[in-house]
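=== Discrete structure encoding ===
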Amino acid sequence: MAKGARKPVNYESFWVVPQLPVPAWQTERHTYDFGGANPGPDVMPSADLAEAAKQVIVEEHNEIVRYPPTYGPDRLRELIVHKMKVHRGIEWAGIDEVLVTNGSAQGIALAMQTTVVPGDVIITHRYVYQGVVRSFNASGAEIVTVDRDEDGMRMDLLEEALAGLKKQGKKVKFLYIIPSPQNPDGTILPLDRREKLMDLAEEYDFLIMEDDCYVDQTLDVDQMPPAIMSLDGGEERVIYIATFSKIISPGVRVGWVTASKPLLERMAGYKQDVGNDYFSGLIVAKYLEDHMDDRIEWLNDRMRHKRDTMLAALGENFGPLVQVRVPKGGMFLWAQFRDGINMSELEVPSMERGVRYLGGPQFSVIGEGKNYARLNYSFPSVEEITNGIAKLADVLREEGAIKE
């Protein structure tokens, strides 16, 4: 057959899933980036990580040359077990209950893959991490949201929702929660609500997916409440997900899942990635063996200063046009702009002028919250925060959203 005479392939006959957009933010660069969820280059421990890498090459060269085990290197899992025990009160878990993942996102995906089918019911926050909004909506599950107050998810509203679903003959598969602190609003769920949540999980027989990836950002908190997993019943009811991205870098894709063996074994069986990057995991282990507590304390000092700088800049540039509850932890301000200021529509014009943030609808399974914006203060420098918030105000004036 002559070259070029073959019929073009009709790919539509091969697809089994709808097309989804590839996130452009992964390659885009902005002068003022308030859209991320990670420490910035100004707080990257480059020299210490380089030294840890050199030592790992010498100490672990026999392991690095092999394919990594599915569950991850023992050295890293031992560090994780220690961190969970000391920082989160999770006493029962050993390395056999730890599955190393490609960041926390892989842990969420594995939990979804092994527990959720279309039509299942998932409960989560009214506004929640945009990554799970996409995952939940794509799963075909029915998503029920529960509102919050200044202390996080309201247990009275959760109980009301559970009772209503039961009357409809619907059983909840799991509840996804970010308790320490929440993304995007920064609330911290108190101990009594965590205990009530465990009681409700037993009464209505559902699992809890506890996403603890921001727990180390304790800006105005002496100590976070213990992990939900550490409470009575947590060993069997909770899938605990965490990451080192927020104290090192998301470019170092090292997270983990902890769960009871039956749950973890099922997830591990579907983790078909020939193991996570052995080298990165061992570097993280070596670095944090020597620096973890000091790193967290130093980083929080920097984050606290950046948060306060952004709060001051918002007040100076927007005044009463924006309301922000001061978060006691985490990396974000959840800013509520005056009604009529559509921060969702203003995302693109802002990015075109070098300012990136995330509009409220990205954090809602039904697309509400157009006058909200999540502003990250951990990535930009102090100078970039000051100049970038002023630039954002200029953009809103130029677009007619703010009237002088």
Summary: The chain has two domains: 22-44+294-398, 47-290.
